[in-house]
Design brief:
Layout lengths: L2 H7 L25 H11 L6 H15 L9 H10 L4 H17 L1 H4 L8 H6 L2 E3 L9 E5 L11 H15 L3 H6 L1 E6 L5 H4 L4 H13 L5 E7 L5 H8 L5 H4 L2 E3 L4 H7 L19 H9 L1 H9 L17 H21 L1
Helix pairs in contact: 1-3, 3-4, 3-5, 4-5, 5-11, 12-17
InterPro entries: CRAL-TRIO_dom, CRAL-TRIO_dom_sf, CRAL/TRIO_N_dom, CRAL/TRIO_N_dom_sf
Pfam families: CRAL_TRIO (PF00650), CRAL_TRIO_N (PF03765)
Organism: Charadrius vociferus
Length: 339
């Protein structure tokens, strides 16, 4: 299904009460939010249930008018992710959607052959997993452990693929779209040689995706067991962070009590002073691997156009890569100093 065919078929104006009658092959949206989450979405995201489909249609019309060859999915549920991530601001939601596609098309090492079975070694290593219990705000906790990665086994891009697929799976849930997620990153044992793989070029790409190119709300990033080298890593990351996101980073060192002020022990594994037993990665791995068919079906609707590309791109290609390589050469002395 191409973006052109979808846009050709999408003729009703925004606010039409019978939009879906014109789109018989597009799934009809059914809200799965609880009454409490509907209220939360109204208060925090400016989502009004009585206007929801009108807002979706308005975004769909903007895509068809401004980016007719974007090649995106135009289903109600898919577009809602972007509206919620940008608090129903049409222009910002549209830019996020364009950035989403730009990121996917500008980094083939990450997005080619993107499926759970292709990153099975990363999942089995325990580099990334999702804790089984939600936090008190109803948010999933994504646990990242760089020490589980052996660079000689596979490149850093495989880790990024695993994180991206984890987020794609999580964002399928409307609850996650409203509540957002929390990240717990354990930097225990991260050496200088391992940190050197995460230079400014990779940092800019990853931050660009998480901050401006993916429809998810990252509510907190908790760093635990960070070594001195992390000062150098954060110096690389910080220039690419917006102030709001930078303020959501919490550095706890080895202080588990500090971590517990942000994430309660009842949902944490024993490894982090919690009471929910040993960290078990098998349940999330099985869930993600079992979702491969659904994810591939979703990705199949994201068509890469061969004759055009979106403007206002988030990533500008070779010039940015050269600039970031130059920045990395300048950063290396700082990394050695921190180490």
């Amino acid at each position: 299904m191409s973006g052109d065919s979808d846009c050709t078929r999408t003729s009703p104006s925004a606010g039409s009460p019978s939009d879906n009658e014109f789109l018989p092959d597009r799934p009809k949206y059914v809200c799965s939010l609880s009454p409490d989450l509907i209220t939360k979405a109204r208060e925090e995201l400016q989502e009004k249930p009585e206007w929801r489909l009108r807002d979706v249609q308005a975004l769909r019309d903007m895509v068809c008018k401004d980016y007719p060859s974007l090649g995106t999915c135009l289903d109600d549920a898919f577009l809602l992710r972007f509206l919620r991530a940008r608090k129903f601001d049409y222009d910002r939601a549209l830019q996020l959607l364009v950035n989403y596609h730009t990121c996917r098309r500008s980094w083939p090492e990450v997005f080619n052959n993107l499926k759970p079975s292709a990153i099975k070694p990363v999942l089995e290593s325990g580099f990334v997993t999702v804790l089984p219990r939600l936090d008190p705000e109803g948010r999933h906790v994504v646990c990242i452990r760089p020490d589980r990665w052996t660079p000689s086994n596979y490149p850093i891009t495989e880790n990024i693929r695993a994180i991206y697929l984890t987020l794609e799976k999580l964002i399928q849930s409307e609850e996650t779209q409203v509540n957002g997620i929390v990240i717990l990153a354990d930097y225990k044992g991260v050496s200088l040689s391992k940190a050197s793989h995460f230079g400014p070029f990779v940092a800019k790409k990853v931050i660009g995706i998480l901050q401006d190119g993916f429809p998810i709300r990252i509510k907190a990033v908790n760093i635990i067991n960070e070594p001195r080298i992390f000062k150098g890593i954060f110096a690389i990351i910080k220039p690419f962070l917006k102030e709001k996101i930078a303020n959501r980073f919490f550095l706890h060192g080895c202080d588990l009590n500090s971590l517990h002020q942000n994430i309660p022990p009842v949902i944490l594994p024993e490894e982090y002073g919690g009471t929910s037993g040993k960290l078990d990665i098998s349940a999330w791995n099985e869930l993600l691997l079992a979702s491969e068919e659904d994810l591939l079906r979703d990705f199949s609707q994201l068509v890469l156009p061969c004759d055009s590309s979106p403007h206002d791109m988030l990533v500008s290609g070779d010039a940015d890569e050269k600039q970031c390589d130059d920045s990395l050469r300048g950063m290396k002395p700082q990394l050695y100093y921190c180490y």
